[in-house]
Amino acid sequence: MIITVAGEKKEFEDGLSVSKLIEIEQVETPQYVTVSVNEEFIDQEDFETYILMDNDEVEFLYFMGGGR
Amino acid sequence: MKITIKESDYKKILEHALKERPNEACGLIGGNDEDDVRVIKEVYLLTNIDHTNEHFSIDPREQLSAIKDMRSKGYKPLGNWHSHPESPSRPSEEDKRLANDSSASYLILSLEKEDEPVLNAFHVEGPDGERTVRKEDLEIV
Question: Could you say which of 3.40.50.300, 3.10.20.30, 3.40.1440.60, 3.40.228.10 is the CATH number of the domain covering A2-62?
Answer without folding.
Answer: 3.10.20.30
